[in-house]
Amino acid sequence: MIGEIQVASQHGVYVIRLIGDVRMVLCLSFDTYIGTMFGDPDFVSVVFDLTAAAAVDSTTLGLMAKIALQCQRRELAKPVLLIEAQGMLRLFETMGFDEIFLITRCAPAPSAQGFSLRCEEGTENAFKSQVIDAHKVLMSLNQNNHNAFKSLVDALENQ
Questions:
Q1: Quick check: 9 pLDDT over 60?
Q2: Which residues, 6+ apart, have CB-to-CB distance to 35 below 8 Å?
Q3: Where are any strands of DSSP class E within the chain?
Q4: What is the pLDDT of residue 129?
Q5: Is it the case that residue 112 has pLDDT exceeding 80?
Q6: CA dist 159 to 39, 124, 152, 155, Å?
Q7: 68 near 80, Cβ under 8 Å?
Q8: Angle of CA points 38, 122, 68, to nearest 5°
Q9: How do 115-116 and 4-10 pair as beta strands?
Q10: What is the mean pLDDT of the chain?
């Protein structure tokens, strides 16, 4: 299933729903939306609904971690991850997300009025920069992530 990111907000609470196989082709749009979200003076919290996600790549994970770390810097509540699948739960725990998110196993959330992010066009350098930045965020979470992604980041930075 091709990936999709749906977003909605109400009274400063943002809901980000990942659907299908979410890959880096959405990263530029997602990063732009993150900037918009944190630019909202009413912003108070984020809920990620992953109940319809089949897979999430490491660039998307890095952007999710970026959100959690920004919430932490602003002394806001930890973002919430709604997860149904055991495999997804293991992925997020392995990546150290249980330290920066409140992870909840649950059934799918009801649909909210919102919109889907579209693939933003960008240059190869823009995508490469986004991939590097997202993986650096993941590397900052713990030593296992640092070891897992260091060679990728070094290779991309040296291209």
A1: yes
A2: none
A3: 4-10, 13-22, 45-56, 80-83, 102-105, 115-116
A4: 80
A5: no
A6: 33, 12, 11, 6
A7: no
A8: 25
A9: antiparallel
A10: 86
Q: How far apart are CA 65 and CA 95, in angstroms?
A: 10
CA distance 4 to 34: 16
Q: What is the mean pLDDT of residues 111-122?
A: 59
Task: Read off the pLDDT of residues 128-138 as tens digits, 9 standing for 90 and up.
Answer: 787 788 788 88
Tell me how far apart the alpha carbons of residues 44 and 37 are, in angstroms, rounded to a whole number. Answer: 10
**92: which 2 tokens?**
């997020």
Banded pLDDT at 82 (limits 50, 70, 90) = very high
Sequence-distant (6+) residues with CB within 8 A of 62 are 133, 134, 135, 136, 137, 138
Q: At 156, is the secondary structure helix, strand, or coil?
A: helix
Residue with tokens 């091709």: 2
Pairing of strands 102-105, 80-83: parallel
Average pLDDT score over residue span 58-75: 94
Instruction: Fill in the amino acid letter for 106.
Output: C
Please give the structure tokens belonging to residue 83: 């997860």
Matching residue, tokens 């350098």: 125
